[in-house]
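Forwarding the complex inputs:
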Amino acid sequence: MSAAPLLEVRDLHVSFPVPRGVAGALARRPPERARAVDGVSFDLAAGELLALVGESGSGKSTTAQALLRLVEPDRGSIRLGGEDVLAAHGRGIRTLRRRASLIYQDPYQALNPRLRVRDVVAEALVIQGVGDDPEGRVTRALEAAGLTPPETYLERRPHELSGGQRQRVAIAAALVLEPELLIADEPVSMLDVSVRAGVLGVLDGLRRRGIAVLMITHDLSTAAQYADRIAVMYLGRVVEEGPARAVIDDPQHPYTRALISVVLDADPRRRPEQQIIAGEIPDATRIPSGCRFHPRCPVRLESCSEFDQPLGQARGAVPEHRAACVHARAASATLEETR
Amino acid sequence: MSVLAVEDLHVGFELDDGSEVHAVRGVSLGVERGARLGLVGESGCGKTTTLLALMGLLPANAWVSGRVLVDGQELLASGDASARPLRWTEIAMVPQGAMNALNPVRTIGRQIAEPMLVHGTQSKRAAEARTRELLALVGIPPERAGRYPHEFSGGMRQRVTIAMALACEPKVLLADEPTTALDVMVQAQVLALLVRLCDELSLALLLVTHDLPVVAHVCGSAAVMYAGTLAEVGPVDTLYHDPGHPYTRRLFEATPELRGGRPLASIPGVPPPLDRPHVGCPFQPRCDRRFEPCPVITPALLQLDPQHAAACHLNDPAMT
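Prediction (whole assembly, two chains):
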């Protein structure tokens, strides 16, 4: 990756006010904010598939929404093809949504049941006022989503399609403006296992055609199988990031290690020793001091409650494999230096 | 002897427009004391309907035939009336979405005690003590009995439903996708709990899920359902390494693996409609090993060895 990446996210912060309730209001407690995304940085190149992996509450979906300005970040920067996404206003936001599009988890809710496939896919063209060759664009988008021959789908309505076909229609609708970046938020989690591979294969094909794909998923197995790179999120932060195989085979952050150890295998003979971590992700209004994982960490040091380790090149790992853990830091970056 | 025995179970639904959906078409299963059986398949294959039939919880427009024996007692003989005394005390269920299964305006302690009071298995006082015991058993501090469901996380709520299911000391536990809505780390916690409790209490577990890795991890054997019928039953190791039905093999080939390098392959096509009888094998339109008899003759479940059976003509020397 020598050229500037298509997407550059730096130190992104997004927070939401949390209703304090009647009691809180009466006590004049100041409204709290949930820091859903709390300093996220990553790059994504054209033709690359990055999986943003994490449990619920890790901030992965909020990150995706911020990239399209569907939620407003507090601070940080997002550059798409060199342009400042956060500086865009009005028309600029509309242009942004031509360059980057989003597909949602639930193909049963995302498609308007009254519209025919033709109109579902063409809707973005109408909104964006793209007049030239709408028929051809719709046809090409359906083909790219694997709905071939496209003519057999144009006049159908969502209820006449299977779940996998609906998700392909949603992908076609996201592709019709020929975006450079496609964000897929849990694209197969609502689908039956038997059709998932087909939909994931479509995303893989788009990546090969030079589209940058950001896949949000809670499923490490899917990420391992399809992603070029994996970024693992915990409580609003990327805690580990690197080439997919390296992250899976040689995890550097204790959270990633535990997460990988509990992913189950379909082969009953492969039962790796599970490292089950007690408790659940804390509330984003109460992010622990220092390393945010330290209260649950099996290998924490005393200093971990004080020092918030940045994401850094992991010791002994392949280049561009980075982790935010004192144990993983290269020998040169000692605690003293990070102070 | 099987503590849960299902013999030739059929379930159908009469719809408002006069049509009928035949959702379960002759399912036979047995689970022994202390054994864990997975019931797997895609949406619409009839696995949840099977479970609801076992619990006597089917809606009014459903009909059932066949036999369900729990520890030798007939569950279906005279409809709902005979199921009720066995429900909770002999056979209990952990539902899918813990948030929807719990009453939001009742404390979890009252909800756990309720089946004991309704079935008269414990006095009010004893039920309170038993509730505290059950909470401790599932890893919730007993002093939280007075809290409401919204004060618990998803994983903790699922523990509450497990405690509830165990309240009347059933012999058979049914679990419907008990961890599907949970994150992996919480799923690992809940599955570890479920396995430990089944071992300690020698429960027979019937685990319904679409998630093959969960079944491979929790269960000794599994039954694969397709379009209301059993495609294959056997030890999970055999199903993965030496499947007797192409549908089982293809399900595994469609399942992503963390450490596996093989490319995934989806299964083209969709399951057949359930509002008409099947002719031939229900899977044959999607099958990559289809041959002459498949579209015409419905394959019977053929015993391949004492533990392993599959409904595929490929296993039948008379056909091939």
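Residues 184-200 of chain B form the longest helix (17 residues).
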